[in-house]
């Protein structure tokens, strides 16, 4: 800059205007280049800091996903237990003495309760602050997270609310219509009048059927959320910790291929019913042939030897899997275990 100052003084005094303009332009260009370099440096620095914060928030979001995925496991278990209650309370063999036990009392009040998901999304909200102008390599993960939090979570919360409103409505109806309800509610004791109502009242059984129908949609939403949340967790893991390939297995989100192979085969129940277990694209699949009908579906892991189907309430449990040669498959539905013996 001192050089340009001397030239400016020299040429301005001698009225060499053209040359002065030339050197002035040079000085101006250098200034502009300096500003552009400084801005570019600042922008790169901001981008790097933004990406670092994005990666950090992704790692925090993984912990959030862990908690949410654990919630879905509890939800599936909740409805697995409830299935047996549905079949018991709707049967024609239920007696008053069956209701006067702790398990029996639960048969009378489950339509006043519901499972609440309580999913959290704090780190997803934070992540949105750092996803602007982020490198395109992160777009697939962002798309998966958007689907999970904007679609699956919204569906799940909507069904949470609907289940809660239904249980509240069921309780209000009982309070307003059944004189014995206050005694039942406060003492946990079931009078003869209450027992007769719970066993024989057709309107009450209609309410149970309505609760069951809505709960199936709720369970399906919980399963959908679990599958998508595990996909998100896996995508984040590949991005920020690609060397840790066994974490999904250790967390129970995936099952070792050796174990999966031990489940493959044909299983028979009684004379004609069959279940064929196969592997397609590293995923376990089941084909059930029962009563002349065929059913196909992918199996999703709930634990190392337990699997669920998204659109059905059934749970499949493989036995003796530690031998890496499972010899039976238990299909649990409505609280009843159907045991299939491995034939091939």
Structure description:
With 344 residues, the protein is an alpha+beta fold. The chain has helices at residues 2-13, 17-89, 96-99, 102-109, 122-130, 139-177, 181-187, 192-200, 202-240, 247-250, 257-263; strands at 265-269, 273-280, 283-290, 293-298, 300-301, 306-308, 315-319, 328-333, 336-342. The protein has a 9-stranded antiparallel beta sheet with strand order 4-3-2-1-9-8-7-6-5. A hairpin with a 2-residue loop joins strand 3 and strand 4. Helix 6 runs antiparallel to helix 9 (202-240). The chain is flat, with a radius of gyration of 32 Å. It starts with a helix and ends with a strand. The mean pLDDT is 84.
| Share in β-strands | 5-15%
Distance between the termini: 88 Å
Strands, total number: 9
Fraction of helical residues? 55-70%
Rounded to the nearest angstrom, the radius of gyration is 32 Å
Counting helices, strands and paired strands, the structural category is alpha+beta
Residue windows where pLDDT falls under 50 for at least 5 positions: none
Overall shape:
flat
Largest sheet, order of strands side by side?
4-3-2-1-9-8-7-6-5
From N to C, what is the helix and strand string?
HHHHHHHHHHHEEEEEEEEE
């Amino acid at each position: 800059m001192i050089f340009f100052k001397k030239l400016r003084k020299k040429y301005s005094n001698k009225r060499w205007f053209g040359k002065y303009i030339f050197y002035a332009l040079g000085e101006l260009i250098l200034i502009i280049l300096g500003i552009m370099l400084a801005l570019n440096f600042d922008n790169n620095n901001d981008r790097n800091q933004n990406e670092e914060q994005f990666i950090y928030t992704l790692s925090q979001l993984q912990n959030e996903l862990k908690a949410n995925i654990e919630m879905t496991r509890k939800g599936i278990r909740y409805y697995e237990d409830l299935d047996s209650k549905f079949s018991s309370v709707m049967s024609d063999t239920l007696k008053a003495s069956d209701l006067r036990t702790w398990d029996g009392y639960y048969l009378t009040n489950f339509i006043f309760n519901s499972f609440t998901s309580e999913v959290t999304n704090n780190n997803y909200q934070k992540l949105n602050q750092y996803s602007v102008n982020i490198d395109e390599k992160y777009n697939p993960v962002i798309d998966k997270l958007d689907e999970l939090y904007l679609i699956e979570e919204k569906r799940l919360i909507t069904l949470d609310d609907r289940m809660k409103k239904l249980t509240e409505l069921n309780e209000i109806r009982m309070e307003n219509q059944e004189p014995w309800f206050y005694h039942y509610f406060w003492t946990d004791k079931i009078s003869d009048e209450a027992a007769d109502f719970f066993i024989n009242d057709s309107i009450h059984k209609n309410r149970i059927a309505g609760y069951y129908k809505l709960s199936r949609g709720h369970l399906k939403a919980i399963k959908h959320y679990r599958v998508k949340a595990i996909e998100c967790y896996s995508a984040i893991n590949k991005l920020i910790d690609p060397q840790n390939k066994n974490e999904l297995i250790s967390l129970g989100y995936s099952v070792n291929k050796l174990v999966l192979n031990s489940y493959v085969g044909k299983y028979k129940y009684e004379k004609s019913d069959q279940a064929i277990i196969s592997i397609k694209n590293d995923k376990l699949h089941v084909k059930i042939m029962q009563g002349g009908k065929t059913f196909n579906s992918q199996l999703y892991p709930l634990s190392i030897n337990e699997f669920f189907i998204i659109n059905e309430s059934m749970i499949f449990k493989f036995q003796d899997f530690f031998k890496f040669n499972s010899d039976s498959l238990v299909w649990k539905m409505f609280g009843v275990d159907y045991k299939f013996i491995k034939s091939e």
